[in-house]
Design brief:
Strand order of the largest sheet of chain A: 6-5-4-3-2-1-15
Function (chains A, B): Zinc phosphodiesterase, which displays some tRNA 3'-processing endonuclease activity. Probably involved in tRNA maturation, by removing a 3'-trailer from precursor tRNA.
GO molecular function (chains A, B): 3'-tRNA processing endoribonuclease activity
Shape of chain A: globular
Strand content of chain A: 25-35%
CATH superfamily of the largest domain in chain A: Ribonuclease Z/Hydroxyacylglutathione hydrolase-like
CATH topology of the largest domain in chain A: Metallo-beta-lactamase, Chain A
CATH architecture of the largest domain in chain A: 4-Layer Sandwich
Largest interface: A-B, 30 and 30 residues
Subunit structure (chains A, B): Homodimer.
Distance between the termini of chain A: 12 Å
Helix content of chain A: 10-25%
Radius of gyration of chain A: 21 Å
Oligomer: homodimer
Catalytic activity (chains A, B): Endonucleolytic cleavage of RNA, removing extra 3' nucleotides from tRNA precursor, generating 3' termini of tRNAs. A 3'-hydroxy group is left at the tRNA terminus and a 5'-phosphoryl group is left at the trailer molecule
Number of strands of chain A: 15
Number of domains of chain A: 2
Family (chains A, B): Belongs to the RNase Z family.
């Protein structure tokens, strides 16, 4: 099971009523934070998420509303007693930005490792988590994130018996990918394990225009967290100019990619009540949720 | 008249219930901000102070809770339409810190001028405002601030008549410091103006131990805004170790300097209710106020 906390839903600048867009992923006690604007650590405090277990911080792009909270959060993580490294992933420029921001947070009790603009999928911390990135279309280099939480197949007793695998090898084969040679016969994991089981896919897309490449990237996501800077269809021109999306554009993406559920976030400061514009999304993609600060979600593996 | 807004009263890290210690001075529509931790711009938004008129930002020291809000605020000032320069004053290291933080706020529509560790009193923006600084005793270079708002003397009709100043020169002499020579006689401003009038002195002291030099620096302040990180007298050892002050120590400073009123701020995160410790200050210095977020003060010139 994956627990998600939407720490904030605002875009542009921090406001009294809405924290800046940020998502916290909790999987087996390990935490991944996506974006960290000014005040994100306060929202974490309200949500009582803790700080010490943050292993990875994914930054979409280097605009203040997505990154200014970083030096304060890094300090607070340090104060929480963490000594293991923290990995920061971000687009082109993230190394310079982190270095700049850390001018005021120089002495941390742990190492900060920065991965700039990864060209391949990342598979670390936990081998069950694969992180993919996609270049988006914003006014500065920006990347979308997709997380795939894979699930091991079950042990299949019948298959093991059919394949004549000696019982004393079952446990060993289940727990390791290494082949075992016994009496000249090679035994591999596939001889005892069942079918692959479906994992969970989570995608996070902000800030961007709805470019073609996104659909394939977020394809079949169990949950898509997408920016919806403008609720009103009439603001499409603003969305085009400022390289953002309207609710309807985000919904069109969600539909094209057959995602299960979409949560809208990153609402513009001018939009007091995003729910007033929900219809603009649901007319296109019914399973749309208007995000709220500290809304939580549970994503469960099937069966 | 000088309007003050205590934007926050917290120290250490931003919390859900208390913004970080920061003070906004408004004098004749010009604004001076002292310290800018994470979220200061949100407190300004709540207090509806506006952003465009901020001429000077005084930073006491380069710890996150006093400076992390700077890049976000500079961006918001830019979005407010300001094109005039903004001056940032701070201790040793402020240039490097501002440069680092501005890695993520590179393109502002106005110039940022940084004054590092000023050795003399500063007298700019408005000639009536004199800014003095004092080196404090904290775990990183830290400076206290004192502001003197001077007041012009009144025009003195009797004195002008006594000094036989021709009436047609009165207005000119009142408005300028230049001498005027008429028929071989030199007329100066002092021939028509009354006694100097008392100005207003405001001091801001955080974070520091109560070192001797502070008393003279804050001497006769109309208002002293002082850190009070620890309310409980029993926390004096922590105060010594962490280079802060208890309420009682701040009150002792206020008394020794004969200030009129002291407002305590920069309360440690562990102190839920600073008012519980007010007696520890008032036993020493009666006119102590426990600061609260967005508390406002009016300082009026005498007479």
């Amino acid at each position: 099971m994956i627990d998600l906390t939407l720490l904030g839903c605002g875009g542009g600048m921090p406001t009294p009523n809405r924290y800046l867009s940020s998502l916290l992923i909790n999987y087996k006690g390990r935490k991944i934070l996506i974006d960290c604007g000014e005040g994100t650590q306060v929202s974490m405090k309200i949500a009582n998420t803790g700080f010490k277990a943050i292993d990875i911080i994914c930054i979409t792009h280097i605009h203040g509303d997505h990154i200014i909270g970083l030096p304060g959060l890094l300090g607070t993580i340090g104060n929480s007693g963490r000594t293991e490294p923290v990995i920061i992933i971000g687009p082109h420029g993230i190394k310079e930005a982190v270095e700049g921001l850390m001018t005021i947070a120089k002495y941390l009790p742990y190492e900060v490792r920065v991965i700039e603009s990864p060209k391949e999928d990342l598979n670390f911390i936990d081998e069950d988590i694969k992180i993919s990135t996609l270049e988006l279309d914003h006014s500065s280099p920006c990347i979308g994130y997709s997380f795939y939480f894979s699930r091991s197949p079950k042990f299949d007793v019948e298959k093991a018996l059919e394949n004549n695998v000696p019982k004393y090898l079952w446990n060993k084969l289940q727990k390791s990918n290494e082949e075992i040679i016994e009496n000249g016969i090679t035994y591999s994991r596939s001889l005892v394990m069942g079918e692959d089981r479906k994992g969970i896919k989570l995608s996070f897309i902000t800030d961007t225009r709805p470019i073609e490449t996104i659909s394939k990237f977020i394809d079949n996501s169990d949950l898509l967290v997408s920016e919806g800077t403008y609720g009103d269809d009439l603001d499409e021109k603003k969305a085009i100019k400022n390289k953002h999306m309207t609710f309807r554009e985000a919904a069109t993406l969600a539909k094209s990619a057959s995602v299960k559920t979409m949560v809208l976030t990153h609402f513009g400061t001018a939009m007091a009540e995003p729910k007033d514009f929900l219809d603009n999304a649901t007319e296109v993609f019914e399973n749309t949720i208007i995000g709220e600060d500290r809304m939580t979600f549970e994503l469960k593996f099937e069966d």
